[in-house]
Amino acid sequence: MKTLLAIHDVEQSTDGVKPVIELAKKAEAHLNVLVFGVIQVVPVAAAPGVPAYYFSKENDELLRQGKDRVQEIERLLQDENLSASVSLECRDAALTEETILQYAMLADATVFPNQAVLATERKTRAFNGALLNSGTPVIIMGANSKNLPNVKKAMYAWNGEPEAAKAIHQSLRWLSGTIDAHIVIVDPDGNQQGPNPGDDAAAYLARQKFAVTVDRIPSGNRDVSEVLLEHAADIDADILVMGAYSHSRLRQWLLGGTTRSILQTAKLPVLMAN
User: Fold this and answer.
1) Which CATH number characterizes residue 52's domain?
2) Residue spans of alpha helices (H) in the chain
3) Lower CB count within 10 Å: N or C terminus of the chain?
4) Domain assignment present for 169
5) Does residue 146 lie within any of the structural domains?
6) Is residue 47 part of a domain?
7) Could you report the per-residue pLDDT of 72-103, keeping only the tens digit for each?
């Protein structure tokens, strides 16, 4: 892991950067902090994204706040033994995903604080921009952010889909050494995944020198997210690795129900891929 990206709102306190700084230090990674703000625009069909003249004062103030926030974060980073950079982008809200994507493509992972993704529409759009099409994972830090670089037990939510496979591949950048890996299938379907669902994923991880267990568990008609998080707690997992799913391939910015529920309730760190 060489580069981490953190998204920081212009209006956000610099306290939100501190857990990510600690994570980058422990991972010995370069930290790129993107300070992001949304300017006010007039939705003119002929020239979309053109700032309105009567919004100029508000936008000028936003830019001033953004520059001040960049300086605050730079001062904060001066006292840390860490390679880091701070960038500022103030864009039309409609360009949020596109802007974040450009930065996420050149990072090994984008990091969000615990349960912050759904806090605001801007955060959710930033999450989507970092995850969809970037080819890199998003990591949602748990309540105890310091445990992430020292994972010993990883739980993999497996359903045989490409997103879950991508999550496995991308997790290998983070996880090394002696890892106790649990492949977890909720309501396994032998017709779709073969007679022994999860054995193929287990064999792949075993070749990475992981100690692998396959856990096939029934949902009991409960939400899959609830079952996954309960099992993660039962086995004392350090991280949950899973694919992120949307409601529709034609509307990828709408998070699927399981993904949204995990983002709302997970206490442990989560690595998601799409």
Assistant:
1) 3.40.50.620
2) 18-27, 56-78, 96-104, 121-131, 162-171, 190-193, 199-206, 224-234, 257-265
3) N
4) yes
5) no
6) yes
7) 999 999 989 899 999 999 999 999 999 999 99
